[in-house]
Structures are given as structure tokens and as C-alpha cells.
Amino acid sequence: MTTLLDLKSSVLRQVQRSQSLRSRREPPPTATSPLTHCPDPLPRRISEASVEFFERMNAILQKQENMMRAAQAECQRGACTVPPPQEHVDQAFIPDRISRTELDLLYEEAVYTVVNRVGVPSPEHVKSDDELFAYLRKVFDMGEEEHEIILQKVREAKRASFSLRVSVMKAKNLMAKDANGYSDPYCMLGILVGQSPRETEEKKERKFSFRKRREKLEKRSSTKEVLPARCIQVTEVKPETLNPVWDEQFVFEIDDVHNDLLHLDIWDHDDDVSVAEACKKLNEVSGLRGMGRYFKQIAKSVRSNGSASSGSEENADDFLGCINISLNEIPVVGYDTWFKLEPRSSASKVQGECHLILKLFTNQRDTTLSKKDTNVSIHKKLLSQIVEYEHTHVKREPYNWNGQVSPPAWTVLTHHAVQTDLSPLQQAIIRWQCYSSHHRTQRVCYSLLLRLLRTIDAEWDPPAVRGDLERQLSDSFRLYTEHCLCLMKNMRQVFPCTSAAAITRYELMLRGIGYMQNMQAFKTVCPLRNELHLDITTAVKKGTAEWYESLIARYRPEDGTLEEQLKKLVQVIDAVCADVQRAQNIYNKLFHSAVKVDFFSISYRQLEKQAADDVNVAMERVCGTLEQESSRLTQTMGEIVFELFMSLKILKGFREFLPLKDAKMLALTGFHNWFKSSIHKWLQIVHDRSCDRIRKAVETDKLEPLQQAKHSSSAVEVTACFSQVREIWVQLAWPDSAGAFIFVTRLTDNFCSEAVCYSEMMTRKIERNQLGRDHKSFTVQLCIALNNAEHVRVFLGNLPRDLDWQGVERAMEESCGVDGKEQVYKALNGQLFNMDLDLQREAKHLITLLTDKMLPELRRYIQHISLSPDSINNDDAVSPLMKYLQDTMVILTENLVKENLSRVLQSMWELLLRMILDAVTENRGVQVEFYNRFQYTVETLLHFFQAKGEGLSMEDMKSGDYKVLDEELRLNKCSSFELIEQYYLEKISHQKTLKHTRYGRISVKCYYDAPEQRLTVEILHAADIIALDANGLSDPFVIVELCPHHLFPMAKSQRTQVKLKTLHPVFDELFYFHVSPEQYRHRFACLTFIVMDYDWLSTNDFAGEAIAPLSDFCWPGRPNASPAGKSVQPVILHLSRSKPSEKPIMRMLEARIGDREAQEFVRRLKEIEKSMEEE
User: In this predicted structure, what is the pLDDT of residue 46?
Assistant: First the structure.
């Protein structure tokens, strides 16, 4: 509460001081007044400096807008061919290179892979060994001789042994063999031994079946044709289904990968005997020849284990179809497809398909590496070597390489992966490890890495990743994460917003790191890194702090003079604002969508705190310097302080993008208090420069109207200056209500004093220019000067809105109560009111210059009307004046704005009224035609100045001097009796207005006896009359008479007795007058009561008079002189002592020398006035 009261007192003191600046109670400013004094023109360089000052201020005000435009331009990232900056990282993240010996062993592995290729190559594979060898020599930088040695070694080595992995997945749309409309299918599969080329041709001509091939197989005598029973595999029986799902895997060792075949039968199981048992019994048989015999014995075995009572084959398994696949037709990457079931013969009826996955791989490799290292490790080394070579040969945008390798590389890698039996998951992990590791030395496209992560995620199978592979995957995730965090810390250098390619890469990197932290693989192998967003937050904070420190190190704001330090600090804050703008426009969106981290909040709070600390320290130095007596705020320092304030305001404004919880307790809260004293001094500099600019505008103004306007260049320049200062205040947006009120008061006073100063300078310029100019050109320039002042006045009329006075009033009411609001209202509106009075004063002065120029001509034309003979036509008498006014009106209408035209017309109208009134008063007692002529002149002027509703209003014209003139003309045209009657009407009207006077009062009763036509007047007493004798008393008596005398020629005045030495005489006397109805019906018929002081040595003294119209007593129905009439309440009349000579009627009557009645009336009134003067 104490703080609030202190604030209120402080603000009210400021208000009182502000009100005193331009108080109307003070005497007019002297020539040295700082508010309205306009010194002689300063040197030209000062005016130019003022222009440059406002240009710099405008540039400062546009800083935020320019920053927004620059940020938007950065956001519109079109096609940009400029490569992004290098992504320099810590050496700890760069992987070790392998030795030459290891390369030779790896080369042997690659050559062994090429030599032992199997499977049908795809179109993108290279078929030529020579082409593959040539490519590998380049990859491994191998000479011809070394290549031949290794190739010879590989050819002498043991050939690779192959196996076939068969995955029987499912079948669909099988034939229904059971009565219930279903079948109980199972599969029997095995490898058919190699065939001769002739048999291969026969195979192409007809379908295979076990039964049809049996005879040919039995004819073979070679022992290699005999296969062991374990090469025959059987799936489980799937009961009652036509779409069985087995998902069983079998591995067969292959003797002849180029000639052997895979054969598969699907049967309907019709008894309870296990087919697996039948196959088991075959293991006891040896020496059978031919695969067909084995399948035949299985079938017989199954039948023999059926029902014992049935010797027929009714319970034999029903054939559902078969599939024959030559191993040499299997693609390099294997089969994963649906195969159509085939019949045994044309008589068989089968339908449906079976889904098989087939893959050939080696189960024994005769290479050095394969004997001491794992297949995963070998493939990883091979891929790393190939990736490094492929990337070095990318010519266009190598930083954006998508990881695609050449056909020879793809061929070698595919064959090696197939031969070493790497699963898709293992291959995905290897590719991720290689590319992410390579990326740390030579960057690749982040979309490639993201794609590799997605592949791992899609293939992820936790049980398949154990041991070394799990550890290696964990290390790769860790290294990549740390690498990305390092880049995040340096993101402003590595991923600048000025590079579209860099921002695109950054977005993909964040998406990748965000995707990785949500992968099940990452959670499994890196269980302790479950708060990656905290690591990202830490990296952003550290990177932001380091970036700010680099700014400080670059600009070094602690060096140089105080002005230089502040200027450097402005550059620092501007750089921070630009960075925050980029954070809000670009980076924050990337972080939020990719990793759900509020980058803007983190970086803004960090930068805001560091910037606030540095500026606070600097402003303390500034305030300390300004507090020294000999120090003052220079213009340069003021501009820098203002720019620093605006930069901080821009920085503070970004808090609106913070979450509500983060927008509290920020370091820049209340930062305006650091600048309060400096801004006060700086506003004085702005005022001085504004005055210089206005002075320059007046000097260079040629007083020529601008296009489509009636004001000149200086008015535009002045309002432009005001607009800029107003915009400065708007941009300041001072948040403290008390401070805002003080500043608004100061600005309003500055505006008002500058406007008055401008108007005074324009007036002086017009005064200097009037010499030697013709009437028309001078009138035009004067009109422009008036319009200039009006243009400025209208502009300043919007100050309450432009400076948000209502907002200041509300703020002051909240902080200081209703009294504070009232003081604000009075102070600000008082300033504006005083300014308006000053501008009107200057406008009147200019108009006076104009009318003074017109005065000789107008006086001549008025004199012409006055001296015109009575016989002349009124139009002819008035026409010269009207012709002059018409010509003047054309000039004024063309060059004045409406408001000024009204003012000038009003001034001309008042001038003409005064001139006509002077002419009339100088010519009293002349012929009535004289007054009729001027009456006609006034009526003509009324219509002229009204201008059919476009000029002055009748209401405005028929007031003031017009009423006086109109009355003067009307009275001058009256007879002497009419003037006397008018005199008593005015007296009656004046008597009614008297409520209390210092001359006392008189109490009377009046009642009229209609039958007798007699008016009874009873004078009761008087009270508080003035003392006219030396003893402080009077000897009063009352004279009563009927007036005017020409209406009551037979009535004589009557008087009471004298009451000695009293101021409260009691008379109680009756007087009777004869009054006819024709007499009392006149409004001017009245009774006058004149109180006199009896003086037996000299003339009686006049003490006062009162008047009562007869209409108050004499009217039909009024109580008569009967006893009832005597009960009428007395009337109290207040006495007055007005001088008759002050009334125009008196002067008019006095001017009528030849009129006896007029002269007699004047004589009697002068006697009364003379008695007043002798007191």
C-alpha cells in the first residue's frame, strides 16, 4: 500500500509540473521562451543533420520489420545449389582404417565370392567375372600381379559347399478330397539328384511326378544317385483346411547346385498313421536306387499302416499336386513367391498354389577370413570398403549421396550376403553400421540413414540379435547419437538457415534421431539411453551459450569508449534477435516435429538471460556517466541508447511464443527501467531535432500549394515529423503506467510547442513577404499559411488516439485510482486546449493581416453607401461593395480549406458590421432613408455570406455585433415617442431581472378601480436605501409618476413626505391617478418610483428608482378599490441607479435637436444623472 501511495504522489507531482508548462494563467512567453521562441535560422548543416537524424530513427524503427522480412526470406527455401557447410566433428567419432594385410584378405574373400557365384542373376547384376574383378581391383587398389596370385589361390581352394533352405509357408485353394468338403494336407519334399543334359530337355517337354520318374531313376546304377532318407522331409498335417499354413523350414545339402532339383508333393492325409513314422522307417533301408523308390516305399508304408481289414487302396493318401524347381533357376537372392501346383499326369486334377521361400547359401568356405572371423564381420568390412570407394566417386553433391552403389558393387555384396547366409536383419544392421560410420568421416544424405533405421525396425527380431552383433549395434547407435548431439551443439554453423540444403539435412537428421529413440531395437540394445530428449536439451543449451560467447568474442563490446561499447552491444543484441527469429521460424518447427523438444524456449531463455546481463551492466555505466554534473547525453549516444532499447524490446517481444510456464520470471522483465533517465534526455534531443527540421521546412517553403491540396510543403514536412515522433513513441510501448504518463505528457507538450512555433514562424514569414506584393498574391500566400496551420492543428487533434491517452488513463486509474485518471485527463487535455488557443491566436493574427489589407477598400465602399443621396437606388449604392467582396470571395474559396474559409468570412462579416455600425452611429438624427439604405446593405451581406448554405450560418451571423447594429438601425428609424416607449420597455425588462441590489428596495401596493378608472398607489415603506448625507443617513422621499408623459399628458407627478435621518423610511401614503383602459393596455405604460434625498441647501440627490408596468395592476378581473382590493399583497421593488446617457436611445434622442419632446425627455434624465454625479 505504501508503494502504491508513493507512486500516486510521484505521478501527481509530475502532472502538476506538466500542467504548469503551458498554463494559461502565466503571462505570454517572452522572446526567450523555450517553447514558442524560434531563433534565427541555424546553419544549413544543422538542418541537414536533423534530416539525417530522422532517417536514422526511421531505419531503427524499421529494424524489426526488416528482420521479419529477412526471416521470411530464409523460410522460403527455394532451389539452392550452394552446398551446406562442412560438418566438422570430434576425431573420436572417426572410425579406424584397416591395414593393407586385412585388405588383401578381404580381397581374397571378395574374389572367392565372385568365383563361387550361384543363382540366376537379376538384371542389375553384372555377369562378367572380368568386369567384377576389374571393379574389385579399383576398390582395393590391387595390382594385376597381386590379383592373379590371389585369384590362383582361390581357384585352387576347395569349392564352396552349398545348402538350400526351403521355407514352406502356406498353400491356398487346394482341392477338397474329404466328404466334409475339406482336405488334411501335408507336404513331402526332397532333392532330386542331378540329371544329364538329355534328361533336362525331357523335363522341359513334360511335367515331373514321383511315379513317372521312378522308372528312369531305377535305371541309374551310379552310387551318387542314391540319396539318404534324411534328405526327404515332411511337414505337419493340417486338418480340415484348403488353405493350410505350415511356416516350416528345411535345409538340404546340395551336391550339384547346377543340376539338382527340388521336388515337393502335397497329399491329403486319410488315416491316423503318421507320415513322419513312414519316413523314419525308411532310414533303416539302404542301397535303394533312385529317389522315386523312396517316395514309393513311403506311400506303401503309409498304406500298410492303414486299416488291417482293408486290402484295397481306398484309404491311400490322395494326391493334391506337386512342384518341381531346378536349383539352377533360383535367383541369387532366392525365391519368395507362390508356385502353382502341377498334376502327375493329364488324368490328375489339381488346383491351388503353394508359397515357398528358397535360398541357396554356402555351408563351407575355403578362405582365410572365413576361418577366423564371422560372416557378419567379414561382410561389414567388405561393405565399408566398397562404400568408401563408391562415395569418393560421387561427383555431384556428394554430401547428398543416397548410398546407391554401382552394379558391380551391388553384385559382389549381394552374392556375399547370400553365400554367407546373412538374414535381412543382419544385412540391415551391417548396412546401418557401415553407412553411419562412414557418415562420420564423409557425410551422406540423412534420408539414407533414416531409411536404414526403418529397415532395422521392420526386420527387428530380438532373439536374432545377441552377443557381438548386439554390442556392435549398441555402439553404432551410441556413436551416431553423440555425433548428432555434437552437430546440434554447432547447428548454427553446420546447419545455417541461409542454406536450404543445410536445413533440409538438419530436418532429416532430427527426424532420424527422433525415429531412432522410438525404435524397439534402440530401446533393447541401449536400455540406459531412455531420455534422449534431455541429451538434446543439454546440447542445445550448451551450443546456444557457446554461440553467444562467440558473438561477444567477435564484437568485443567491452573495448573502446562507452559509445563504441554500446554500439557493439547493439550489434550483439541484433544478432541475438535474428537468431531467435530463426529459432522461432525454422529450427523450432524441426525440433518439435522430429524430437518433441521445444528448441525455441530453450535457446530463447538462454540468450535472453545472457543478453540481459550484459546490457544491464552497460546501462549502469551509462546512468552513472549521465549522473555526473558535467556530463550530458549527446545525440550520438542518445541514438545508440534508443536503438539498444528497441533491439531489447524486439528480443523481449519473442516471449509471446513461449509456453505460459516459461514466460514468467524472465531477465528482461522490467528492462525499461534501465533506460528511464536516458529516454527522458533523448526525448529532448528528439524535440530539438524536430524544431530544426520544422525551421528548415519553413525556410524552404515557397508557399505554393501541393497537388490536390491547399497547403504547402512545410505542413507536410511538419506532420511527417510528428508522425515519425509518434511512431517512435508507439514503438517504445512503455509498459509502466506512471512512466508512460510522464512521457506522453512530455511528448504532447513537445508537439504543442512545436506546432505553435511553426505557426509563429509562418506568420513572420508572411509578414516579411507582404512588402512589395500585390493584393492577390499576398492573399493566396496568406491562405496557404492559414491552411498549413489548420493542417497541423487537425493532425494534432488525433493525439489522444495516436498516443493512446485512454490507455494511459486506464493504467493510471489502476495504479493511482480515480484521482490519477482525472489528473491525467486534465493535464493532457489542458495542453491540447492551450495549443489550440495559441494556434487560433496565430490564425486570427494572419486573418487580421488579410482584413487590414482589405480595410481601405472596405472603408471606401462603406463611405460610398453612407454618402449616397437618398434618391439613389439601394442596389446601386451597395453594388461596388458587393463586387469587391465577390472578387475576394473567389480568391478565398479557391485557396482556403473550409474551416479557414469560415474563419475568414466570420472575420470579414464582423469587420463589416463594425464599420457599418460606426457609420450609423456617426450619422444619428439623419433621414430615415439613410438607415433604410444600411438596413438593405446588411440584409444583402447576410445572403452573401450565407452563400446558399455553403458559407456562414444565419444563427452565427445574427449574433453579437449584428444584434447591436440591427437594434441601432431599428431604433434610428423610430420616432421620438417610439424611442421613449422603447426606453421604458427596456427599463421594465431590466427591473424584472433585479433580484438584489445595494441601493435598497421599496414596498408598494397598487390596485385599479375599473368603474372609476382610478389607479390607487399606496407607498408603504423603503429599506436599505443608500446614505447620501454626511451623517451616514438620508432624508428620503419618493416621487411617483405615470410614464411616458406623452401617454399620460394630464397626469402629474406626486411625492411623499420627507422622512428625516433614516435609511428605512415608513411612508404609508396613498396617491390616486386616472388611467383609462386605452392607456394601461400599452406594454410600456408604467409607474416610476424615484427615491430622492432631500437637501434644503442644494439640489436634492438621486437615491434610486424602480419601475412597475401598469399591466401588473390594471387588467380585467383585477381586485378593485373595494376592501378586498386593499388586501392585495404589497410588491417589493428593488432600486437601481443606471446612467441614462449610457443607453443608445438616449444618444439618439439627444441627436434630434429639432424635436422638442426628445430634448425635454433628455433634459429630465440628465438632471437625474447630474444629481448622481454631484454626490
Answer: 47
